Q: What sequence folds into this?
């Protein structure tokens, strides 16, 4: 006999009536749990906030979602640190990002079940959810910080090998790595309240940069001083050599944040004459600050229910070591800088934020800062054969001064 729509609705109502402890979507705001919220046939009162709702999930349904997840992040307490153990209610709260005691206790009560009920809810057995059990965070999988660094930086090194010895162009694996890294970097919390985030540095109009050049003789010194925009500016595209952030043929403007750093970057010898130019930003510039990655960026906790939890956690850890990888000294062969060049190109063209350049720690001077500015010419302006790069900085003859190198410092580390 055919079942009418009204009979189906009545069955659903009876089924809902048999269930208890409904939790509304406002009390469980995790976006990965929202799709599991049901549209109810009749309004139900949420046990968390007491509001009548027609979009909710039962605490038993939440237990079925939470059960398989908790053992990935917690383990049974071993009693090593008395007083720091967690109850089941506490770790359920950490998973759900919920502080409503009644909701957490109701979910926990469904997890503390018999073996038969565990099978039905698809939760871990072997007494993980035994009544009165205590828990602790799962042990870190790494023996020490060096082990952690080796593991998370492995993806970066693998991508570098791919670019060097495998697929160099149109490499989707490398692109995915860069996309994941930059997503986590841009998601870091903003503590300054400027809305920029910790990896975005804005320099104002008039901000001072420095750039140096060794003069071979007095005549060259005079030529450089008389024509600083040309002689101290970025080289034309035909003369742009292989650099840390730019491949040969791509003109970038390499600058330093102070005179001593720009002198160190040209690696002069004792007795050399160095001409230094002071450039000023002609507009407000947005800089990707790689040095901000050296600290521990603060993020909103990841959802335990995010399918990409593990890979995103690894990317966040990789950020802590990334500046060290990018600023590592190399011998400047044709392929040594491929990875940093590719990463900078992604920041320039494919990042969701528009950047005018990057900043990174100087290799030649420990506390110095280097800046790389991107050419601002449009694709249409680059169409003619004789185009020259343009950057948002200015210099005049009054901004030039000359120094003589009287000492060079070296530092060594035993291998």
A:
């Amino acid at each position: 006999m055919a079942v009418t729509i009204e009979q189906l609705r009545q069955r659903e109502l009876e089924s809902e009536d048999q269930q208890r402890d409904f939790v509304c979507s406002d009390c469980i705001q995790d976006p990965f749990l929202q799709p599991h919220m049901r549209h109810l046939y009749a309004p139900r009162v949420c046990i968390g906030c007491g509001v009548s709702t027609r979009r909710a999930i039962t605490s038993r349904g939440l237990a079925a979602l939470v059960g398989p997840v908790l053992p990935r992040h917690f383990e049974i307490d071993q009693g090593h640190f008395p007083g720091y153990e967690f109850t089941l209610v506490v770790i359920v709260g950490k998973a759900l990002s919920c502080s409503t005691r009644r909701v957490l206790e109701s979910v926990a009560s469904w997890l503390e079940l018999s073996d038969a009920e565990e099978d039905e809810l698809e939760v871990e057995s072997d007494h993980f959810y035994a009544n009165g059990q205590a828990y602790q965070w799962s042990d870190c999988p790494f023996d020490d910080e060096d082990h952690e660094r080796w593991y998370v930086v492995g993806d970066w090194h693998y991508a570098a090998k791919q670019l060097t010895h495998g697929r160099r162009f149109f490499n989707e694996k490398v692109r995915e790595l860069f996309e994941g890294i930059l997503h986590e970097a841009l998601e870091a919390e903003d503590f300054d309240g400027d809305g920029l985030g910790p990896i975005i540095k804005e320099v104002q109009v008039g901000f001072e940069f420095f750039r140096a050049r060794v003069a071979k003789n007095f005549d060259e010194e005079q030529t450089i001083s008389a024509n600083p925009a040309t002689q101290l500016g970025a080289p034309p595209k035909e003369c742009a050599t292989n650099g840390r952030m730019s491949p040969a043929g791509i003109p970038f403007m390499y600058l330093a944040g102070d005179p001593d750093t720009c002198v160190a970057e040209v690696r002069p010898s004792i007795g050399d004459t160095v001409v230094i130019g002071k450039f000023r930003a002609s507009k407000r510039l947005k800089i990707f600050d790689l040095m901000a990655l050296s600290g521990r960026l603060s993020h909103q906790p990841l959802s335990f229910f995010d399918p990409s939890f593990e890979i995103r956690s690894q990317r966040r850890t990789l950020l802590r070591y990334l500046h060290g990888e990018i600023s590592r000294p190399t011998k400047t062969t044709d392929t040594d800088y491929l990875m940093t060049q590719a990463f900078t190109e992604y920041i320039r063209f494919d990042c969701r934020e528009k950047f005018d350049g990057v900043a990174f720690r100087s290799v030649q001077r420990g506390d110095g800062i280097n800046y790389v500015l991107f050419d601002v010419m449009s694709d249409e302006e680059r169409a003619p054969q004789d185009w020259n790069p343009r950057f948002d900085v200015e210099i005049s003859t009054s901004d030039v001064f000359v120094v003589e190198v009287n000492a060079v410092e070296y530092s060594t580390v035993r291998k």
Remarks:
- The longest strand covers residues 273-281.
- The radius of gyration is 30 Å.
